[in-house]
Amino acid sequence: MAYMSAPVSTIEEAVQAALATVDDPEIRRPITDLGMVRSATVDGSGAVKVELLLTVAGCPLRDKLRTDITAAVSAVPGVTAVEIDFGVMSPEQRQELQTRLRGGATPEPVIPFAQPGSHTRVYAVASGKGGVGKSSVTVNLAAALAARGLSVGVVDADIYGHSVPRMLGADGRPTRVEDMIMPPQAHGVKVISIGMFTAGNAAVVWRGPMLHRALQQFLADVYWGDLDVLLLDLPRAPATWRSRWPSCCPTPRS
Ligand SMILES: Nc1ncnc2c1ncn2[C@@H]1O[C@H](COP(=O)(O)OP(=O)(O)O)[C@@H](O)[C@H]1O
Ligand SMILES: [Mg+2]
């Protein structure tokens, strides 16, 4: 009587499966999913050769990867030796990895205020000039609305000077709980400032895309709770940045 036998996996398949159990220590996803394994070959004596592409040259986690891959692959029956050749991804391969990450486990951050049905009103305080009272208006409006019993949050996105925390007296540091950032509060206002994330108020050369990223993160990763009002104190904006606004943040409502 004939039985259907389960497909016998080859040693190559077993090696692939073993490699799939190794996560990139930084991205925390299997190296096989990240396109890091360029090739994995097994010769007749059971010696495995893995060509691994690092995301950046001089990757500090290279040793960890070596250890993890060696441990995983050595455990495959029939494997006698493991050799790893490190290479570096080309800019195109890195780009592809980024695209893959966006579409996979790390999608674009979800901004609750931008979701349909959000009750939070978002107001941006912006101007092409500095020193015209943007921050003063923002903090006074925020404190006044909070005094009326509304739940209010302020994002200080002014990269030229983070005056909001000082004006509000919210000079605490945000705390981290799991993946969420808890904003300090003052006068009943929750506040997050770009200045809270730069060491010692160091001057940082912020460029449009970096600000875009930081704002997205402030809006997505900060635990704001159910806000009635979110005020954004924006930097004086060169015209080139203004065009980024629609994609970067929820469209302010009146
Ligand atoms: N309505 C106002 N009348 C007079 N001075 C003001 C007024 N609003 C703000 N200021 C002062 O102007 C300066 C710049 O204000 P600020 O709110 O920091 O402006 P911005 O955020 O636009 O750079 C501060 O010294 C502030 O105290
Ligand atoms: Mg200001």
UniProtKB/TrEMBL annotation:
Q: Which domain of life is it from?
A: Bacteria
Recite the UniProt keywords alphabetically: ATP-binding, Nucleotide-binding
A GO molecular-function descriptor: 4 iron, 4 sulfur cluster binding
Q: Which Pfam families match?
A: FeS_assembly_P (PF01883), ParA (PF10609)
Question: Taking every annotated instance into account, which residue ranges of this chain make up the domain MIP18 family-like?
Answer: 12-84
Q: Which Gene3D superfamilies match?
A: Fe-S cluster assembly (FSCA), P-loop containing nucleotide triphosphate hydrolases
GO biological process terms on file: iron-sulfur cluster assembly
Alphabetical list of SUPFAM superfamilies matching this protein = Fe-S cluster assembly (FSCA) domain-like, P-loop containing nucleoside triphosphate hydrolases
Q: Which PANTHER family match?
A: IRON-SULFUR PROTEIN NUBPL
Q: What is this protein called?
A: MIP18 family-like domain-containing protein
